[in-house]
Structure prediction request, 203 residues.
Amino acid sequence: MPRTKKSGKAGKTGKTDGARKTAKAGAAAAARAATPFASPEPGAVAPVDIGISERDRREIAANLSQFLSDSFTLYLKTHNFHWNVTGPMFNSLHAMFMDQYTEQWNALDETAERIRALGYNAPGSYAEFIRLSSIPEEPGLAEAPDWREMVQQLVAGNEAVCRTARAALTHADDAGDDPTVDLLTQRLQVHEKNAWMLRSLLQ
Prediction:
């Protein structure tokens, strides 16, 4: 029997579909590149419907990501100073810094889990924390700062966390996100008290 001549349409269709997929992938990559650094990535396939709009959830999660980054950077700096403090205030500051970094470490989970509850991934790498934090990281110097500079840096760090928390709290309150408001209110009380107690050492 004579062979039926194959149409070239199938091949052309396959090429067209491939081009469309490539174009879509390129557009998606461009959209991701245009997303602000603070915007978190979706962390769940199933839709989240907790009575807060997707736009508000995304912005609250972005704010909490910045707050988490500030909190982690402050925790790390406090732990660093606990290890490296010297001088006449050693005993008092060594113990004080330990109390503060232990409390801060335990609180990090609550913030990260709140971001997850909103449907987004929490930042979890040093690169992300450095990019998102408003607190400068303490460089690994051969000589650590003296105790007064350590205390000054921790006052500034706790106050920076308070400012970030307040900005995040305002939007969460406007969106009716009571759990986030409660979380940030509790953290404000802790960090305002830390800043006050540390500042008192310098007066």
